[in-house]
Amino acid sequence: MHNNPNGCSWSRLLVLVATLFLASCAEGPALRPDAAVRKWVGPVVNVPGGGQFRTVIYYGPWQCSQQLMNYCREKCSGSGHALQGCMWLADVKMDYQGNVMQTGSRFGMTHCCCNYSTISVGANESARSRWNNARDGFREQWADRFGAWPTDSTGLSFPAHHVRDLKHGGNPTDWENILPFPKDIHETLNGLYNQCYANSPPWTTVGVDYPYGE
Description:
Blueprint: H1 13-18, E1 39-41, E2 45-46, E3 52-63, H2 66-78, E4 83-97, E5 102-114, H3 121-146, E6 160-162, E7 178-180, H4 183-197
Antiparallel strand pairs: 1-3, 2-3, 3-4, 4-5, 6-7
Keywords: Signal
Protein name: Lipoprotein
Signal peptide: 1-26
Protein backbone atom coordinates (compact mmCIF):
# COMPACT_ATOMS: atom_id res chain seq x y z
CA MET A 1 0.00 0.00 0.00
CA HIS A 2 2.88 2.38 -0.51
CA ASN A 3 0.59 4.87 -2.11
CA ASN A 4 2.70 7.92 -2.86
CA PRO A 5 4.28 7.69 -6.32
CA ASN A 6 6.91 10.13 -5.13
CA GLY A 7 8.27 7.48 -2.77
CA CYS A 8 7.42 8.80 0.69
CA SER A 9 5.90 6.16 2.99
CA TRP A 10 2.60 7.03 4.67
CA SER A 11 3.87 6.15 8.15
CA ARG A 12 7.01 8.26 7.62
CA LEU A 13 5.12 11.47 6.90
CA LEU A 14 4.90 12.35 10.57
CA VAL A 15 8.67 11.97 10.94
CA LEU A 16 9.16 14.14 7.88
CA VAL A 17 6.99 16.84 9.37
CA ALA A 18 8.95 16.78 12.60
CA THR A 19 12.23 17.18 10.74
CA LEU A 20 10.87 19.88 8.42
CA PHE A 21 11.44 17.78 5.30
CA LEU A 22 7.78 17.24 4.47
CA ALA A 23 7.98 19.46 1.40
CA SER A 24 10.06 16.81 -0.36
CA CYS A 25 6.93 14.65 -0.53
CA ALA A 26 4.70 17.38 -1.92
CA GLU A 27 2.57 16.35 -4.88
CA GLY A 28 1.03 19.02 -7.05
CA PRO A 29 -0.27 22.49 -6.19
CA ALA A 30 -2.22 23.46 -3.12
CA LEU A 31 -5.85 22.36 -3.22
CA ARG A 32 -9.11 24.20 -2.74
CA PRO A 33 -11.27 21.20 -1.76
CA ASP A 34 -14.95 20.95 -2.64
CA ALA A 35 -16.91 21.61 0.54
CA ALA A 36 -19.14 18.61 -0.25
CA VAL A 37 -16.27 16.15 0.14
CA ARG A 38 -16.13 14.38 3.50
CA LYS A 39 -13.11 15.12 5.61
CA TRP A 40 -11.69 14.72 9.08
CA VAL A 41 -9.75 17.63 10.52
CA GLY A 42 -7.35 16.58 13.24
CA PRO A 43 -6.22 18.67 16.19
CA VAL A 44 -3.10 20.82 16.12
CA VAL A 45 -0.11 18.77 17.30
CA ASN A 46 3.06 20.32 18.69
CA VAL A 47 6.28 19.09 17.07
CA PRO A 48 9.35 18.44 19.26
CA GLY A 49 11.82 21.24 18.66
CA GLY A 50 9.16 23.76 17.72
CA GLY A 51 6.31 24.21 15.31
CA GLN A 52 2.94 22.55 14.86
CA PHE A 53 1.18 20.36 12.33
CA ARG A 54 -2.37 19.33 11.56
CA THR A 55 -3.64 16.28 9.67
CA VAL A 56 -6.68 16.44 7.39
CA ILE A 57 -8.10 13.33 5.69
CA TYR A 58 -10.30 13.79 2.59
CA TYR A 59 -12.43 10.73 1.88
CA GLY A 60 -13.28 9.18 -1.50
CA PRO A 61 -13.27 6.73 -3.00
CA TRP A 62 -12.47 8.15 -6.42
CA GLN A 63 -11.13 6.80 -9.67
CA CYS A 64 -7.34 6.79 -9.68
CA SER A 65 -5.39 9.52 -11.42
CA GLN A 66 -3.10 8.43 -14.25
CA GLN A 67 -0.13 8.62 -11.90
CA LEU A 68 -1.75 6.37 -9.31
CA MET A 69 -3.02 3.96 -11.98
CA ASN A 70 0.52 3.62 -13.32
CA TYR A 71 1.83 3.09 -9.81
CA CYS A 72 -0.66 0.30 -9.15
CA ARG A 73 0.09 -1.37 -12.46
CA GLU A 74 3.79 -1.43 -11.58
CA LYS A 75 3.09 -2.63 -8.05
CA CYS A 76 0.98 -5.55 -9.25
CA SER A 77 3.40 -6.58 -11.97
CA GLY A 78 6.29 -6.31 -9.53
CA SER A 79 4.80 -9.10 -7.42
CA GLY A 80 3.82 -11.20 -10.42
CA HIS A 81 0.18 -10.12 -10.50
CA ALA A 82 -2.09 -8.29 -12.93
CA LEU A 83 -3.92 -5.05 -12.15
CA GLN A 84 -7.71 -5.46 -12.19
CA GLY A 85 -8.63 -2.00 -10.96
CA CYS A 86 -7.48 0.97 -8.91
CA MET A 87 -9.30 2.84 -6.12
CA TRP A 88 -8.17 6.18 -4.71
CA LEU A 89 -9.54 5.76 -1.20
CA ALA A 90 -8.54 9.01 0.47
CA ASP A 91 -6.03 11.83 0.60
CA VAL A 92 -4.09 12.43 3.81
CA LYS A 93 -2.91 16.03 3.97
CA MET A 94 -0.46 17.36 6.54
CA ASP A 95 0.36 21.01 7.09
CA TYR A 96 3.32 22.18 9.15
CA GLN A 97 3.81 25.67 10.53
CA GLY A 98 7.04 26.70 12.20
CA ASN A 99 8.75 29.91 13.17
CA VAL A 100 10.58 30.29 9.86
CA MET A 101 8.65 28.15 7.37
CA GLN A 102 5.31 26.65 6.41
CA THR A 103 5.04 23.50 4.33
CA GLY A 104 2.86 20.50 3.74
CA SER A 105 2.15 17.38 1.78
CA ARG A 106 -0.70 15.19 0.65
CA PHE A 107 -0.57 11.43 0.38
CA GLY A 108 -2.91 9.42 -1.85
CA MET A 109 -4.15 6.26 -0.12
CA THR A 110 -4.69 3.89 -3.02
CA HIS A 111 -5.94 0.32 -3.18
CA CYS A 112 -4.39 -1.62 -6.04
CA CYS A 113 -6.80 -4.41 -6.97
CA CYS A 114 -4.19 -6.94 -8.08
CA ASN A 115 -5.39 -10.45 -8.87
CA TYR A 116 -4.33 -11.73 -5.46
CA SER A 117 -5.56 -15.12 -4.32
CA THR A 118 -8.06 -15.11 -1.46
CA ILE A 119 -7.08 -16.71 1.83
CA SER A 120 -9.02 -19.44 3.61
CA VAL A 121 -11.93 -18.72 5.95
CA GLY A 122 -9.82 -19.86 8.89
CA ALA A 123 -6.91 -17.63 7.93
CA ASN A 124 -9.28 -14.69 7.49
CA GLU A 125 -10.77 -15.27 10.93
CA SER A 126 -7.28 -15.47 12.42
CA ALA A 127 -6.28 -12.19 10.79
CA ARG A 128 -9.49 -10.56 12.03
CA SER A 129 -8.76 -11.80 15.55
CA ARG A 130 -5.25 -10.31 15.40
CA TRP A 131 -6.74 -6.94 14.51
CA ASN A 132 -9.42 -7.14 17.22
CA ASN A 133 -6.74 -7.81 19.82
CA ALA A 134 -4.57 -4.94 18.57
CA ARG A 135 -7.32 -2.39 17.87
CA ASP A 136 -7.41 -0.45 21.14
CA GLY A 137 -3.64 -0.16 21.33
CA PHE A 138 -3.43 0.88 17.69
CA ARG A 139 -5.95 3.67 18.21
CA GLU A 140 -3.98 4.91 21.21
CA GLN A 141 -0.78 4.97 19.18
CA TRP A 142 -2.56 6.80 16.37
CA ALA A 143 -3.79 9.41 18.85
CA ASP A 144 -0.26 9.83 20.19
CA ARG A 145 1.03 10.54 16.67
CA PHE A 146 -1.82 12.50 15.11
CA GLY A 147 -3.55 14.07 18.09
CA ALA A 148 -6.71 11.94 18.15
CA TRP A 149 -8.38 8.91 16.61
CA PRO A 150 -11.23 10.24 14.44
CA THR A 151 -14.77 10.15 15.83
CA ASP A 152 -18.17 11.02 14.40
CA SER A 153 -20.53 13.74 15.61
CA THR A 154 -21.82 11.45 18.38
CA GLY A 155 -18.35 10.63 19.66
CA LEU A 156 -18.19 7.11 18.23
CA SER A 157 -14.80 6.07 16.88
CA PHE A 158 -14.37 5.64 13.14
CA PRO A 159 -13.83 2.01 12.14
CA ALA A 160 -10.38 1.12 10.87
CA HIS A 161 -10.23 0.21 7.19
CA HIS A 162 -7.65 -2.26 5.88
CA VAL A 163 -6.52 -0.84 2.56
CA ARG A 164 -5.49 -4.26 1.26
CA ASP A 165 -8.39 -6.26 2.59
CA LEU A 166 -7.80 -9.24 4.86
CA LYS A 167 -9.57 -11.60 2.46
CA HIS A 168 -6.87 -10.92 -0.12
CA GLY A 169 -3.94 -11.21 2.28
CA GLY A 170 -3.79 -7.74 3.81
CA ASN A 171 -1.75 -7.34 6.99
CA PRO A 172 -4.21 -6.79 9.87
CA THR A 173 -1.90 -4.69 12.06
CA ASP A 174 0.47 -2.90 9.66
CA TRP A 175 0.41 0.91 9.90
CA GLU A 176 0.81 1.05 6.13
CA ASN A 177 -2.45 -0.88 5.70
CA ILE A 178 -4.84 0.88 8.09
CA LEU A 179 -6.79 4.13 7.79
CA PRO A 180 -9.77 5.32 9.88
CA PHE A 181 -12.92 5.75 7.78
CA PRO A 182 -16.38 7.19 8.52
CA LYS A 183 -18.70 4.28 9.26
CA ASP A 184 -21.19 4.95 6.46
CA ILE A 185 -18.46 5.12 3.80
CA HIS A 186 -16.64 2.15 5.28
CA GLU A 187 -19.76 0.01 4.98
CA THR A 188 -19.86 0.60 1.21
CA LEU A 189 -16.25 -0.36 0.54
CA ASN A 190 -16.66 -4.15 0.51
CA GLY A 191 -19.07 -3.95 -2.42
CA LEU A 192 -16.85 -1.47 -4.24
CA TYR A 193 -13.82 -3.68 -3.64
CA ASN A 194 -15.70 -6.57 -5.24
CA GLN A 195 -16.29 -4.39 -8.32
CA CYS A 196 -12.62 -3.46 -8.45
CA TYR A 197 -11.39 -7.04 -8.13
CA ALA A 198 -13.86 -8.06 -10.84
CA ASN A 199 -12.19 -5.65 -13.29
CA SER A 200 -15.39 -3.60 -13.44
CA PRO A 201 -15.89 0.13 -14.08
CA PRO A 202 -15.39 2.76 -12.88
CA TRP A 203 -12.21 1.39 -11.27
CA THR A 204 -10.67 0.35 -14.58
CA THR A 205 -10.56 3.86 -16.03
CA VAL A 206 -8.46 6.88 -15.14
CA GLY A 207 -10.02 9.76 -13.23
CA VAL A 208 -8.96 13.34 -12.61
CA ASP A 209 -5.81 14.46 -10.82
CA TYR A 210 -7.69 16.46 -8.18
CA PRO A 211 -11.04 14.79 -7.46
CA TYR A 212 -12.06 17.23 -4.73
CA GLY A 213 -11.08 20.51 -6.34
CA GLU A 214 -7.84 22.20 -7.31
